Structures are given as C-alpha cells and as structure tokens.
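Progress report, Aim 2. The chain analyzed during this reporting quarter is listed below.
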Amino acid sequence: MTRAAAVFAVIFGLLTLLAGGRALFGGADMGAVFDFVLIFNFLAGFAYVAAGVGLWRGDRWAAPLSIAILAATLIVFAAFGWQVMSGQPYEARTMGAMMLRSVVWLAISLIALRAQRR
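Predicted structure tokens for the chain:
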C-alpha cells in the first residue's frame, strides 16, 4: 500500500506541476481563480513529488511531510472558502480540486503514518 501511495503521490505531483505551470506561465485564461491558490498548488507539486520519493524509499521524514502538505492544503482551502464566503467570484472546479487534494493527502498521510509505525 505504501508503494502505491508513493507512486500516486509522484504522479499527482507531476500532473500538478504540469497543470499549475500551464496556468501560471502558459497564459491560459483560467477564469475567476485566486492567485494564492494557484501558486500554492503549483509549489505544492514539488512537495508531492518529494513526499512520494520519501515514501518509496521508506524515509522517516515522508510521513511528517505528508501531514504538512495536508495541513497546508487545508489552510489554503479554508482561506479559499473565506474568500468565497465574502462574495468573491470563483471557479467551481477550484472547490472540487481543493476537496480532491485534501482527501488525497489525508489518505496518503494515513498510509505514511501506518508505514512509519512499522
């Protein structure tokens, strides 16, 4: 299970970097996005890859990094929610993407913690 989570984290990270890079540097009109969410997600892609590599290798820092990614994602998600609740226009796909990221990193964090206990 740990190896599968590691591979998934790396692939998820690479896809995040690709999509985020296109959105930030490709000049694509993304609609009503919040720059802080877009920048966070792009930069988090590097951490996703690092966490996946650490999980694959069985490094002890992989679980804390996974938890830090989850915590940071939840903080950015809350800030996004705050902006939405204040009436700012937003893209519904951002809401879905942040929910997906939160669930993915909760699962990876739980797998990493279980692996670390062994």
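The CA atoms of residues 21 and 27 lie 10 Å apart. The helical segments are 2-25, 35-57, 62-85, 92-117. These observations will guide the mutagenesis work planned for the next reporting period.
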